[in-house]
Design goal:
The complex is a heterodimer of chains A (about 425) and B (about 180).
Chain A: H1 4-21, H2 26-42, H3 53-61, H4 63-79, H5 94-102, E1 106-113, E2 116-127, E3 133-140, E4 151-156, E5 159-164, E6 169-173, H6 176-189, H7 191-204, E7 208-212, E8 221-228, E9 234-242, E10 249-258, E11 261-271, E12 292-295, E13 303-304, H8 310-326, H9 330-336, H10 342-349, E14 353-360, E15 364-366, E16 371-382, E17 385-388, E18 395-400, E19 407-410
Parallel strand pairs in A: 6-12
Antiparallel strand pairs in A: 1-2, 1-11, 2-3, 3-4, 4-5, 5-6, 7-8, 8-9, 9-10, 10-11, 13-19, 14-16, 15-16, 16-17, 16-18, 18-19
Helix pairs in contact in A: 3-4, 4-6, 5-7, 8-9, 9-10
Chain B: H1 2-12, H2 16-38, H3 41-58, H4 68-91, H5 107-112, H6 115-126, H7 129-139, H8 145-152, H9 156-179
Helix pairs in contact in B: 1-2, 2-3, 2-4, 3-4, 6-9, 7-9, 8-9
The chains are: A alpha+beta (about 425), B mainly alpha (about 180).
Amino acid sequence: MKAEQEIERSVAKHCATQKSCTRASSEMDKRVLSDALRVYREAPKSEPSLAGTNLRRIIMKSPLTKLAAAAVLVVAVALSFHFFAASTTTAYAIEQTIQASHSVRYLHVKSFMASIPNEPIECWVEFDLSGQIKNMRIIKPAWMDPADGETVIVWKDGEMEFWIKKKNFLFIQEDQEIAAQVLGMMEMLDPKHAAANIQQAQEEGDTQVEIDEPKNKAEPITITVTYQAEDGTPAQRAILFVDRATKLLDSIEAYQLRGGKYIHFSTAEFYDYDKPIDPKMFTLDDVPSDAMRVDQIAQEIGLPQGDLTDNEIAVEVVRQFFEALIAQDYAEAGRLFGGVPAERMQKRYGHIRFVRIVSLGEPVLNPATAELKVPYVVEIEENGVITKWKTKYSYVPVRQVHGQAGRWATTGAPLGI
Amino acid sequence: MLEDKLLVLKCRWGSTDAMCRIYLKYKDYLLTLAKGLLSEQAEAEDVVHDVFVSFARVVGQFHLTGSLSSYLATCVSNLARDKARARMRRTGAPAPVRPAVRSICDPQQRAIETEELTQLRQAMSQIPYEQREVVMLHLKGGMKFREIAKLQGLSVSTTYGRYRYGLDKLRSLLNSEGKK
């Protein structure tokens, strides 16, 4: 009699054997890729520009992507164009800039909004030998988020740390989804991709590209890219300034057409090509020892989902969160609330005497943030009187923990942190 | 995982290169899965083709919330189920049982294929499709019961029950085969 485990082993072995036998033929590859790519080219895409709803959604989801997105806005505007081939007969070719950019290991970028020229978003980027982003440091100026003030973000080998000086708050996180978004957007900031996209556009042909090499050798080469709207009229413009000697990009200016005029919108300036960046730039050594530290890498956050549905685990997280507050177990409550330290939880919630959970409602999905909002009613005791707790928020948001697959935690709490 | 997220993101932004890389990365995995569900190579290829064409249509505005391999495996499973039902309606019979060792295997692999595996393949094709689907998605597709339950629109316990019934049926078929 075969045991169940033996059957499972046999099936697994069968699968492995079959896998080694089953290979897609070259005919199949040709058929699938031909059909899929034809459909893909005709399908709508999400433009990586500020105008795109998807980017706005990404920005909302994470402080880091909010920052990174802002940092690349100026380039994104330019790169969301579909450039077209202008017949140029100049000695300079965009290929030269692509070639020159490929060996760049270090880069310092400043992005300015035209309306706020004195407070740039600054990025320092280190690429690995294959040209992929390895480390980066971004400084988000206070104007972007006055409540937080200036924020420093370091991304190193997949880990990211946010240092919000004004709030004395350090947040450490590892999340592949956000990392992918950041890397994708930072690739747009990478000059070699900017130049390569223009070259591709020259081959595809929907926009106007003009290259000007001034006779005065002291002036940079300019590439003016004008995007045409669907009706064929000009819509947006980017001007790329290329260094004569190195063929590297000096800067990109983005313009929007308003009232028949191109209005300067933003500028990205590229500095210190290949000037090695001090490794200290990719660490946050200056964070005070008394900063509130939320480390989502060093500790397990929230609860494992197990076989529960998304709605079930969301309710369970909130139930255990309030049970921890009732039991005055602030360490557990903090663990369920994104890893907030026990002392902080006690300081914020210790003055409230939680009595019991009256009800937890059906979660409602917030599609913009992928959070499930769980409505709650709890009772508290004040001066010997038990009442329903009234706060600004009637729900607790819950979502999967960044970088901890299968675990769920609250991303907010009625009184915040 | 990070690579997949980045590939999907690039697809959303219009990268044909990223689209090709997703296909090349998952084509064999999905073909194996489809073939396990349908037995027929041509039908399995059609399923993988249709899955990628559909994926190409939506990926420009696609938000990947879980793993890409599970998403694609779910698509394959849905299409394979439709094909199996259509075949049942058309012919009134499940897919014919093919010899375990197919012509696409090289001689070395042919030798590896034991009699037991041949029996197992035949037994797999005899268990009800719903049970085979759970067994294949769990053991071959690497999907969790929760994910399969969501795909099938059933509770986790029902899905797990189908898995157990499937294994029991396999055991029964293999034991009866062994007694012959």
